[in-house]
Automatic annotation (TrEMBL):
<protein>
    <recommendedName>
        <fullName>Probable membrane transporter protein</fullName>
    </recommendedName>
</protein>
<feature type="compositionally biased region" description="Low complexity">
    <location>
        <begin position="297"/>
        <end position="310"/>
    </location>
</feature>
<dbReference type="InterPro" id="IPR051598">
    <property type="entry name" value="TSUP/Inactive_protease-like"/>
</dbReference>
<feature type="transmembrane region" description="Helical">
    <location>
        <begin position="204"/>
        <end position="225"/>
    </location>
</feature>
<dbReference type="Pfam" id="PF01925">
    <property type="entry name" value="TauE"/>
</dbReference>
<feature type="transmembrane region" description="Helical">
    <location>
        <begin position="181"/>
        <end position="198"/>
    </location>
</feature>
<keyword id="KW-0812">Transmembrane</keyword>
<feature type="transmembrane region" description="Helical">
    <location>
        <begin position="232"/>
        <end position="250"/>
    </location>
</feature>
<keyword id="KW-1003">Cell membrane</keyword>
<feature type="region of interest" description="Disordered">
    <location>
        <begin position="290"/>
        <end position="310"/>
    </location>
</feature>
<feature type="transmembrane region" description="Helical">
    <location>
        <begin position="98"/>
        <end position="116"/>
    </location>
</feature>
<keyword id="KW-1133">Transmembrane helix</keyword>
<keyword id="KW-0472">Membrane</keyword>
<dbReference type="InterPro" id="IPR002781">
    <property type="entry name" value="TM_pro_TauE-like"/>
</dbReference>
<feature type="transmembrane region" description="Helical">
    <location>
        <begin position="72"/>
        <end position="92"/>
    </location>
</feature>
<comment type="similarity">
    <text>Belongs to the 4-toluene sulfonate uptake permease (TSUP) (TC 2.A.102) family.</text>
</comment>
<feature type="transmembrane region" description="Helical">
    <location>
        <begin position="262"/>
        <end position="282"/>
    </location>
</feature>
Amino acid sequence: MRSLVLLSIVGLGAQLVDGSLGMAYGVTSTTLLLAIGTNPAAASATVHLAEIGTTLVSGAAHWKFGNVDWKVVAKIGIPGAIGAFAGATFLSSLSTEAAAPLMSMILLALGIYILVRFTASGLPKGNLGKPLRKRFLTPLGLVAGFVDSTGGGGWGPVGTPAILASGRLEPRKTIGSIDTSEFLVAVAASLGFIVGIGSQGVNYTWALALLIGGMIAAPIAAWLVRHIPPRVLGSLVGGLIIITNVRTLLKSDWLAASGDVRSLVYVALAALWIAAVAYSVGQYRKERAEELREAGETPTPTAEDAAAAH
C-alpha cells in the first residue's frame, strides 16, 4: 500500500513538472521504476499506459486555458505516434540485460540536457512568427516519439525545446500542444508494447497509481509554474534524473563499478547538482530584479522568490 501511495505522489509530481515545463513526466516516472528493478520494456509500457489518462486530462486542461494549437498537434502528433510504436516494438525485442543500460543511457542524456538547458538559460521565450511546417514537425515527431518509447520518456525534452527554439509559437502554446499531442504518442506506444510483450511484466496497479497522481496534478500545473520558477524546477528535476540513472549504469554489468568509485561519483554529482540549483536560483533572482527595475518598481520578495530560495 505504501508503494502505491508513493507511486501516486511520484505521478503527481511528475505531471506537475510536465505540465509546467512541457517535459519530464515519462523520464521521471520511468527512472523511478527502473530504480526499483522493473523490466525496462515493462517500465516504459507501465508509464505510457498511465500517460494515456494523464495526457488526456492535461490536454483538456490546456485546451480550456487556450494553450493548444491544434494544427501543431496534428502535424507532430501523428508522426510521433508512428515513431513511438516503432520504438516500443524495438525495445520489446531487446533482452533485459541489454535494455536496462541502454534505457538508462537515454534517460541520462535527457537528464543532462534538462539540467544544462534550464540551468544555463531557463525556459526559452519564443515570439509569434510564421506557421510551423510539416517538413519540420514530421521528422521531429518521428524522432521524439521513437526516443520517448525506447527511453521511457523524451517526447517533451526533444519536442518542446525544438519548437521553442524555432521562435514561431509562444511558450504556453508550445507546452500545451506538446502535452496534448502526447496522448497520441502514449496510445501508440502502449499498442506497440502490447504487440511486443503483451501484458508480461506490466503492473496495471502501478499504472493506475501513476495515473491517479497525474490526473490530480494536471489541472493544477498552471498553479505550480506561477510559484516555482521553471528554471529552478528544471535544474532540480534534471539533477535527480542524472544521479538516479548514473547509479543504474554504475551497477550494471557494463561498468560494474566498485562501491568506493560509486560513492565518489555520487558525491561529485551531488555537488554539481547543488551548484546548478544555486546558480539557477541566483539567475532567477537577478532576472526578476531586472524585470522589476524596467517596470519602474522596487524589487520585493514574492511567493516565487520564496519558493526559489527553498
